[in-house]
ROK family protein
Amino acid sequence: MRIGLDIGGTKIEAVAVDGDDLVVSALRRPAGHGGVEVLDNAVRAVEELVARLGEPVVASVGVGIPGMVDPATGTVQHAVNLGIDGFPFGPGLETRLGVPVALENDVNAAAVGVSQLLGLRGSLAYLNVGTGLAAGLVTDGVLLRGARGGAGEIGHVPVDPAGLPCPCGQRGCLETTASGAGVARQWSGTGAHAAVEVFRAAERGDPLARDIRLRLAEGIAAAVRILVLTNDVDAVVVGGGVSRLGAPLLDDVLGVLARQAATSPFLASLGIPDRVRLLPPELPAASVGAALLRPAHELDRPLPR
């Protein structure tokens, strides 16, 4: 049995998967704040799952967590909401549990889970449209991390030199319009709730809401286009809190891609709209993906199938 933990800003979602990679138990508990408290809660989540299942042998524990992760050392940076920057989370969890632990960025972990849960082979990009915007890339069963773990940080690709300032210090990044926080900054609201309000107001004809909605679709479409043009992935799966807007959001994005293809024979030849789909919101992609992660000494091996 393997256990996966998806540690978010406020909660831990944990799953246990069996030898066939099927979820056999799941739970949720608060994440806490600070290295010691988050570590304690992660240990409790694992112990509770193990107790529920009658004390089975645990082969490994995988953790998906926000921020820049070094899987080899088990440390994380820029996990602002959790307060664990520089904390040796991976080694600490491994010492407490006595089993191998794999630590990975949460979007990367979700990309692994998407590949497994949707039965996708070949190459895919998981595009997470949540508070921010980022992607995880899996090719032939291998998670692509990049030289410093930054592969897929597409939210900070600047696309408009005259665009909105980004918290990263640049201007006109995709994330400034194609994310929950980006929508909220243009509208009075918070995160995904602001996106819901914007879509409702746009349906009523509110001009500002319609502009924000269009910019959101254009930003997501640009991210999709960049992922296809730079990686030629077979599929781009869109998930995250904002993706819960569902079919109306997908229709907007596909509409933008179709209009671009109509004026570009090159883009039309790539069939980009046919590669895009939404992640069903009920699928625990991040926690399942975490369970499938390989510990540091196995990082060069393909992901389990």
